[in-house]
Amino acid sequence: MNVEITRLPSGLTVVTESMPHLESVALGVWIKSGSRNETAEEHGIAHLLEHMAFKGTARRSARDIAEEIEDVGGELNAATSTETTSYYARVLKDHVPLAVDILADILTESAFDEEELRREKHVILQEIGAANDTPDDVVFDKFSEVAYRDQTIGRAILGTPERVKSFTPTQIRGYLSRNYTTDRMFVVAAGAVDHQTFCKQVEERFAGLPQVASAPPVFDAARYIGGDIREERDLMDTQVLLGFEGKAYHMRDFYCSQILANILGGGMSSRLFQEVREHRGLCYSVYAFHWGFSDTGIFGIHAATGADDLPKLIPVIIDELHKAADTIHQVEIDRARAQIRAQLLMGQESPAARAGQIARQMMLYGRSIPNEEMMERLAGITTERLTDLAGRLFFDTVPTLSAVGPIEKLAPMSDIAAALSSPVPSAKAAG
Q1: In the annotation, is 376 catalytic?
Q2: Which of 50, 116, 145, 245 does the annotation list as catalytic?
């Protein structure tokens, strides 16, 4: 890796990775702030701000922004997550100054025009409607809602129609000035980029950013609660998500949890895929995942199956969880490590992937982590650590179950919880 880091006098951090064999550059601005930094009255405003940033500035109309980047064959986009927001571009190396100028313009000079805001609210209301019409989106939103009941971290990022319709330009500017400050922002570029030249461009164009928030953004510590939430819908399949509290990024078992998720449901060779789909044919897709946040995490298993197969699905998943707490084979750890290593190395071939990875590491750890160090962390994971973790994750914590679709044949939560608190799956939950 050829990563260079400079902290500008303004407090803004600039990071580059030179990939001189390329003709393009992926660059962007990552902000250590997302939907979790909203107040109760701001639910959905982080996502709305991300949209409005592209809707005109003091120098450019919304159309100008789109045309200028596409006139040179570039791409421009943005994303809002629970704890971060990003604005990013991909251009040929000669057009980096233009991309920097546009990104700075939309983040320091956005107009937040009333008419543009009215139109964009309508677009987001359609986005919310589309998400509500997508069962595999709904099941995740409902899972978070019950896992972190009555907390900002458990709320849907898009917000509610009522709240989105209520926002004003003044509210948007208030959220921006409180959260988009130089001490929380990282400008990252990967590809055919010169670090010193890039730093000068960023320093000149991002001079308008506020350096210190008048009221620094904070959020309440997450409290994982767990529970059961189900929604009956007339669908072909039932979307099911069974999960537990996972590990935060900085916790010792974070990487261990990543390996465990990979072994259980990270690919076609994983235990759940082989047993649930290949051996029993109970569903088309089943996978496990582990998401880390700054102070909590989610370990989950997602699957979709028909109403007739639903009574069989959950017991088989629970049985695999018990098996994981009993035995993990070294060959499975080696395979998971190989998959992660391949992902890391393949990601280095993409400037966009590298820029995103570096930005996440800077926000989480304050530095770029070499792949060798990452693999060293994974090398210390043993079969004993994994079985111990599985036992604690799956059987010592309150589970969360979210289901959307034909749910009448889904076992009661009391039966599922009993199967997850006993040494072996209970006959009752096994149907």
Answers
A1: no
A2: 50
